[in-house]
Write a structure and sequence with these properties.
There is one protein chain. By secondary structure, the chain is of the alpha+beta class. 34% of the residues lie in helices and 18% in strands.
Amino acid sequence: MPSLETELDRARELSVDDLADAIESIGFECTRCGACCTSHGEDEHTATVFPDEVRELQAAAAAGDSADATGSDTAESDTTAEARDWRDVARPMPYGLTEGEDGPEGETFEWALQTDGCGDCVFYAEDDAGVGACTAHDDRPLICRTYPFSVALDGTSQPMGEAVDEAGVVRAHECEGLGRDISRADAEALAAALKERAVRELEEAIDVRDAYAPVDTGAGEVVVHDSEGAKRPDGTQLSD
């Protein structure tokens, strides 16, 4: 198996034009069905989010709250953003955790977007006609910007299970929008985001690997390892 560093070099050398060609050959148009933002049966929505993306969503969501309340985007937004709790945006990735008497416990790697009581992404909303939309669309994480595609490199993630179509190094995952016409401009924009995501995922994986040190967790205690170190579920450093 190639090293993460080797795969990172490959990711950095990916051609956006080639990725766009692959996306065009598969075809895609978002139908706003909401399937990629909602739960499926007992499985909660799970989408990986990088630490800096959590902070961006904290700020964006809080700024949006302030703008909605005042009718304008004011300087108060920057202050309000500080009050947005980490756990309003992200939760520990559930994989690797066990269910103890006091709730989930153990060590896990990375963060997932927070979910609501129905298991849907907290940033997903539907209008009266049932049409879905992301309430943080302009600031959504790379995993969301690039769905339903991923890059076939070791160390990169595959959203929503195995690939249902492939073209070159581009994998397409289950989505009713696949097979639809996509403009060249949209394909290129998606391809650029897809390359950025592949690079970021591998950089994150290398940093997590290098920073990881096992932690003895007690009953009901959860520790999340990301590229910035070991953290509590509220996003604060364990060492603080």
